[in-house]
């Protein structure tokens, strides 16, 4: 088994790893849980290492796939064992030293609980046997998984997962690109089901570590990390559909728009049914016909519809033209669009406010008030127009100076 050439470090994961370490460290500061003004805050928000632990198991799977994903492993138990040993051997001496260092403390705690010296030696011998072989977490009992210190269970679970990791890497590599997202979603669902299943078993049996340190549960997080690495690699590949604008950005934007509009529609329906006591909408209103109202509506709305239609056609034509001018023109247009949006956002806000206030005044029959509103909004629109032009020119100056 040969390791592939070292790949470039992913700095974002390194930074995220730091924050997850901080979460785990804070969760182990038990001295902060009582006797301080902020103890309630600590107990509620900081005394929980689950997210950090989940992250590191996923990171282990991601790292294995990232470093060894293209390696040809010997597909037998010996190959998996060698892989596990190579992955763990750097920290194994420190791990054994920590176990030996914890023996005096474990002896004292055992004697305090009333055990005899013989019983203490026997119990510690059994625990050390499992801990040295790194198999203690497979029992699903905290008395063994957490036998000597709070770190040994994590390394034990990771070691046992390493034993089968070559098979997992081979299995994930066999998944076709078009199914990788479905596999990830299925792994997430399977993890949730496993948590529910192991928790149920834990509640009715003497096993008390099935839904946290159990390697048969944690292996699912490692598998998620491996699948995420596949997605990451495909997004880096320009020929892959995971990084292709046509396959990712367009469907994503379309799905996001549909979901947003659906949520808006549901909110309006809930408000109309539960909170609106002024006017209640019914579908039968759509079937009501009024020739005079239809005539007024078409007369007033036709110019607006024509304006919006021409606006849409103009934007589409501009996008088509820019697409043929190259990447430089497209990038420049993107900057210009941001500047334009910043300049016009206030103007559009004022226009919408004018439509609401003036329409409300007209609906109430207060024509004089509507005229007053109209005059004020004309002055306000002139001011916002001048302000918008200043913003555009100032942004253009900043862009030019930045290029220099």
Give the helix level as a range of percent: over 70%
User: How many distinct beta strands?
Assistant: 0
What order do the SSEs take from the amino end to the carboxyl end, as H and E? HHHHHHHHHHHHHH
State the low-pLDDT regions, or none.
1-6, 238-246
Rounded to the nearest angstrom, the distance between the terminal CA atoms is 53 Å
* Global geometry: elongated
Helix and strand composition category: mainly alpha
In short, what is this structure?
By secondary structure, the protein is an all-alpha fold. Helix content is 75%, strand content 0%. The protein is elongated.
Comma- or semicolon-separated keywords:
404 residues, mainly alpha, 75% helix
Topology:
Blueprint: H1 11-27, H2 39-46, H3 50-68, H4 77-88, H5 92-112, H6 117-133, H7 142-145, H8 152-174, H9 180-203, H10 215-236, H11 245-274, H12 291-323, H13 327-363, H14 367-403
Helix pairs in contact: 1-3, 3-10, 4-8, 5-6, 8-10, 9-10, 13-14
Overview of the molecule:
This protein has 404 residues and is mainly α. The protein has helices at residues 11-27, 39-46, 50-68, 77-88, 92-112, 117-133, 142-145, 152-174, 180-203, 215-236, 245-274, 291-323, 327-363, 367-403. It is elongated, with a radius of gyration of 32 Å. The two termini are 53 Å apart. The model is unreliable at 1-6 and 238-246 (pLDDT under 50).
């Amino acid at each position: 088994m040969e390791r592939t050439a070292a790949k470039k470090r992913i700095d974002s994961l390194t930074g995220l790893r730091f924050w997850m370490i901080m979460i785990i460290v804070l969760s182990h500061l038990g001295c902060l849980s009582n006797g301080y003004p902020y103890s309630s805050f600590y107990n509620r928000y900081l005394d929980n290492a689950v997210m950090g632990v989940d992250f590191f198991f996923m990171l282990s799977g991601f790292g294995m796939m990232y470093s060894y994903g293209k390696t040809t492993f010997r597909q037998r138990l010996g190959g998996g064992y060698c892989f596990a040993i190579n992955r763990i051997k750097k920290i194994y001496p420190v791990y054994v030293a920590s176990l030996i260092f914890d023996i005096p403390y474990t002896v004292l705690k055992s004697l305090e609980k009333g055990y005899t010296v013989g019983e203490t030696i026997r119990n510690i011998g059994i625990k050390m046997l499992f801990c040295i072989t790194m198999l203690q977490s497979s029992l699903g009992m905290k008395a063994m998984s957490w036998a000597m210190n709070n770190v040994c269970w994590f390394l034990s679970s990771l070691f046992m997962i390493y034993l089968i990791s070559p098979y997992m890497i081979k299995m994930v590599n066999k998944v076709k690109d078009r199914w990788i997202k479905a596999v990830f979603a299925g792994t997430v669902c399977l993890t949730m089901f496993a948590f529910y299943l192991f928790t149920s078993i834990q509640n009715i049996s003497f096993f008390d570590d099935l839904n946290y340190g159990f390697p048969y549960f944690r292996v699912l997080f490692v598998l998620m990390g491996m699948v995420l690495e596949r997605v990451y690699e495909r997004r880096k590949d320009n020929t892959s559909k995971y990084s292709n604008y046509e396959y990712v950005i367009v469907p994503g934007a379309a799905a996001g728009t549909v979901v947003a509009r659906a949520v808006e529609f549901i909110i309006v329906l809930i408000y109309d049914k539960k909170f609106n006591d002024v006017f209640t909408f019914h579908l039968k209103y759509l079937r009501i016909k009024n020739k005079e109202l239809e005539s007024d509506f078409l007369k007033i709305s036709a110019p607006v519809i024509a304006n919006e239609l021409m606006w849409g056609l103009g934007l589409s034509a501009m996008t088509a033209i820019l697409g043929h001018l190259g990447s430089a023109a497209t990038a420049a247009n993107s900057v210009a669009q941001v500047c334009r949006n910043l300049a016009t956002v206030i103007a559009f806000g004022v226009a919408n406010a004018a439509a609401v206030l003036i329409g409300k005044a007209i609906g109430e029959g207060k024509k004089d008030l509507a005229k007053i509103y109209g005059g004020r909004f004309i002055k306000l629109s002139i001011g916002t127009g001048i302000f918008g032009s200043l913003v555009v020119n100032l942004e253009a100056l900043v862009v030019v100076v930045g290029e220099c």
